[in-house]
Every structure is written in C-alpha cells, then in structure tokens.
Amino acid sequence: MSSVAPKTKPATDTPDVVDPLPPMRWSNILNELNWLSTIILTVVPAMTIYGSLTTKLRWETALFSVFYYFVTGLGITAGYHRLWAHRSYNASKPLQYFLAMAGAGAVEGSIKWWSRGHRAHHRYTDTELDPYNAGEGLWWSHVGWMLLKPRRRPGNADVSDLSKNEVIRWQHKYYLPLILGMGVGFPTVVPWLFWGDLRGGFFYAGFARLLFVHHSTFCVNSLAHWLGNAPFDDKHTPRDHVITALCTIGEGYHNFHHQFPMDYRNAIKWYQYDPTKWFIWVCSALGLASHLKVFPENEVRKGQLTMQLKRLRETQEKLAWPSDSNDLPVISYDSFIEQASKRPLILVAGFIHDVSNFIDEHPGGAHYIIKYVGKDATTAFFGGVYDHSNAAHNLLAMKRVGVLHGGLPQGLQEKTIPPSQRLKVARYAELSSVSGHSSASSEKESSPPPA
Q: Which residues cross the membrane (predicted)?
C-alpha cells in the first residue's frame, strides 16, 4: 500500500497537505498505525470473544445489553449526529446531558471531534478531504481510516458553534472518566446490583454491546455508501437500504440524509425503520426537544422526480423509436400507388407504412389489412373500424417508410405522434433547442412579406 501527497497546492478553503509520509509497507506498518484507535478496536472484539467463551449469558443481561445498545447508539445517532453535527432540532439541557453521556458510552470520541469529522465528510463527500472517503473502498470507509494514519488532514469544517456549547465543553473536559463510566462501569454495575451478574455485565453489556455499537456506526460510513439505491441524488455514493437502516438504528436512508442533511428524519415514510426519528419525535412530544427541522415536501418530491425521470430517460434511450418525419423520404401519391402494387403499403395520417411482416399477425385478421393496401386507412385506424390501443399506435409508427407529399390530413397533427412519445423525457438542452426553433419559425412566419 502506498500514498503520494498531491503536488499541487489545494484551494484556499481547503487545508494544507500534511508532510509526505513514507509509502506504507509491511516493514513499517507499526509506524503507520493510529495506536489509540487500533488498541480500542482490537481490545473490544478480543474481550467480547473471550467473554462469550467463558461467561454464561443470562437472559436479564441479554435484554439489558440490547437496551443499552440502543441507549448508547441513540447517543450517537440522535445526539452526535442529528443534534450536534447537523443541528436538525433543538434539545433541552437535560436531554443534551443525557445524549452526551450516552454518546460517551459508545466510545467514539468526543462530540466536538466526531462532529468536526462528520461535517467535513458532508462537505467533501467522496473526495480526498473526506475523512472516511467511500471511494477508497468498503474496508477503508468502515474501519481503515481509523486504524491508519491519514495522508492528509480532513477538509475544513466550522465547529465554532459547538465550542460555545457548555454541554459539549463539559463532555470534552471529562471525556476520559465519562467513557470509562458509561462505556464499561455503568453497564457492569447495573447487572451486578440488580441480578448479581457482574461478569456478564462486564463482558456482554460492556464489551459485546460496545462492539455492536461501534460497527453499527461504522456501517453508516461504509455499508450506507455501498448497498441500496439513490432515489434523490446519484452524484455521490450514499444509498438508501432497509438492511443498513436495521444495522444503524435508522441511519440507513443515507441518500436522503446526504441530500437533506438538516432534516431530523432519515426515513420519510411512516413504515420505514428509523427509531432515531421516533425517539426525537417522542422527546418533542414530551417537551424535551423542539424546532424539529423538516425539508419542504415540495423540494423532496422534486429530488425524487429528478431521479425518476433520469431512470426513465435511461430506459427510453435503450428502446427503438420511429424514424423522424424529417428522416423519411417524401413520396407523391402516384408513387405510393405504384409502390403499393409491389409491396403492402398503407397510408395512415400522412405516413406510409410497410406492413409486410404484420399481415399474418394482425389480431383482426389479414383481410382487414389487405383491403387497405394502397389506400388511405386513416379513418379506419382511428376508430372508423376499430379504436386501436396504444400498443397498436406505437407498433404502427415503427413501420413508417415514407411521408406522403401534402398528405397530412388537417387536424391530425397530434395523432401522428404515437402515445409512447407524447410524454417523452427530454433534457433541458433539447427543450431549449425546440423552443428556440419554434420561436424562430414563429418569428419568420409573422414577418411581413418583402416589398
């Protein structure tokens, strides 16, 4: 593994590049490790495995471990993430202290440190200035960025608002005793005091729970940028998926979140799994939270529509469409009659169609087509004999081989467009081109004749 520092100086709003680090090889791997993170992320799973092999799991401890997993997980999702990193709602002082203590129990750094990195992640998503850049791979964005020393500092992020918050200053000042107390002490003492399971509390509610909380959060940086779809914006890697939501206490609708980060929700449908949203809403109902921010529904639906139209455009471009009238030869009526004596041609709405490969497949019988060969079947096709389906109109348009000179019946201009093309998706440039052409034509037609 190797990394080379960029030679060009970054823009003024980006940080200076760190001093070049030597290429990473197995011979110097010990010098490239972030030892604090490495120790934490190694000791926690090791203690979990050892404890599970040597300690019986009591049902009371199992239930408490799951409960405390959600408590400390919400400290990250509802506290660190949605409250402090994105300011998506306001919280009362009691709720802030609760979330600060619960977040400390997740042992993922202080609020200020965590939020600074996360704001940089949103500002510089999928770039070198993104501290957990998904472009570097699933392993890197999940845990690698914490184990190895970065080749450059993450992008700038303003956290001056957090520095003024007394709860955040308090947590930052007492962070070490808080993580020891909330991360290991509290989950050990509760099972010991209430049902005499000191060892189970230590290993299961302490370390096993912490292991799940860690990787639940890490999945937001990795799995949520890899699994799922992009219903709001596909310029970057964030994705929406219910599996990720289940793994991350509701943070799995990540495409929505990156598009509307100030919204207190991740999931916008009532049935989508987002316990963090439900927790914030309940806190609001109890008067502990207020000013829950919701992005305007109209703009959310625009984002969805944009992606839906893009997908439709992609499907549209894979389909075969009728030849444009400008690309077809203009044929006189006499020529049409002459050619129809040699091959089955019929006339519908000013277009000449070759139906040779459809005569035997016609649902109404071959004789209905044969009797209109060399004739104008416009009236018959548009309801005179049968009110044909959209599929029939679309199929007929694919059989156009020419345009009859002066043969478009008055009032049938709209009917010459098959149903499949009446709502065709067009890019803005194409619309502008058509609009400009129409304006020019109108201008030309409205000009007075030359003297």
A: 33-50, 62-83, 174-195
Look at strands 289-290 and 330-331 and give their pairing.
unpaired
Beta bridge partners of 352: 347, 402
**Residue 19 above 70 pLDDT?**
no
First to last CA, the chain: 79
Using 50, 70 and 90 to split pLDDT, how confident is the model at 2? very low
Cβ-based neighbours of 45, under 8 Å, separated by 6 or more: 211
Task: Read off the amino acid at residue 20.
Answer: P
Burial class (CB within 10 angstroms; exposed 0-12, middle 13-18, buried 19+) of 217: buried
User: Of how many residues is the chain composed?
Assistant: 451
Which helix H or strand E contains 147, and what residues bound it?
A: helix 145-147
Assign domain 325-430 to its CATH superfamily: Cytochrome b5-like heme/steroid binding domain (3.10.120.10)
Tell me which residue of 252, 251, 257, 250 sits closest to 233, measured CA to CA. Answer: 257
User: Torsion-angle region of residue 447: left (phi > 0), alpha (psi -120 to 50) or beta?
Assistant: beta
What is the rounded CA–CA span in Å between residue 336 and residue 343? 10
Report the pLDDT averaged over residues 104-127: 96
Q: Give residue 227's pLDDT.
A: 96
Going by DSSP bridges, is the β-strand pair 400-404/330-331 parallel, antiparallel, or unpaired?
A: parallel
The CA distance from 193 to 334, in Å, is: 102
Annotated domain spans of the chain: 26-306, 325-430
Residue with tokens 């520092």: 5
Return the axis-axis angle of helices 209-221 and 35-54, rounded to nearest 10°: 130
Average pLDDT over residues 401-408: 84
Q: Residue 410 — very low, low, confident or very high, per pLDDT cuts 50/70/90?
A: low
The model carries a pTM of 0.82
Torsion angle, CA of 260/263/269/275, rounded to 10 degrees?
130
Rg of the chain over all Cα atoms, to the nearest angstrom:
33
- For residue 17, pLDDT over 60 is answered with no
Q: How far apart are CA 348 and CA 398, in angstroms?
A: 13
Predicted confidence band at 439 (pLDDT cuts at 50, 70, 90)?
very low
For every residue of 300-331, DSSP letters joined together read HHHHHHHHHHHHHHHHHHHS--PPPGGGSPEE
Alpha-carbon gap, residue 296 to 165, rounded angstroms: 28
